[in-house]
Amino acid sequence: xxxxxxxxxxxxxxxxxxxxxxxxxxxxxxxxxxxxxxxxxxxxxxxxxxxxxxxxxxxxxxxxxxxxxxxxxxxxxxxxxxxxxxxxxxxxxxxxxxxxxxxxxxxxxxxxxxxxxxxxxxxxxxxxxxxxxxxxxxxxxxxxxxxxxxxxxxxxxxxxxxxxxxxxxxxxxxxxxxxxxxxxxxxxxxxxxxxxxxxxxxx
Length: 203
Prior knowledge:
The protein is mainly alpha-helical. It is built from 11 helices and no strands. It folds into 2 domains: 2-74, Homeodomain-like (Arc Repressor Mutant, subunit A), CATH 1.10.10.60; 77-200, Tetracycline Repressor, domain 2. Residues 1-24 are annotated as: Disordered.
């Protein structure tokens, strides 16, 4: 698998590999944060992260499952974002816009997941490494997964993504009153049909 091939610029492993001491998980997160920030999500392999952390690659899988799980932990995103969006995307096409915005707004308004997602958004805006990591993740993992699940074109998925994340920026980062004044139901009722119009325009 591609994620198991070390990148050309992968750093040599540090001496003294560990088999599972108390700092292993933290070391992996630090290494992953560095490499995701430098190389993006798709070009960073699990082996490169393990080498940077000075651990066996099996420990990365043990602690985080897979690269998406590790990325979610680094960005402090609750759960697997790709699984969440593909679950929402699966189903009748004629109701796709409403399902997507309902899933989105529910996660961002939830007391547990919303705090982490807003922190992730601020980090992506203020930190170049976080922006590189999340941008590449969205382009290389999330959008292709939505396109595959729905059968929509890349251009249509891109338009949907720009609307949803534009809403996130205006509502949760800039906190523009025109967006914060909307209730959760308002967001669903106003944005659902408009996202559906983008879906329906895909031929």
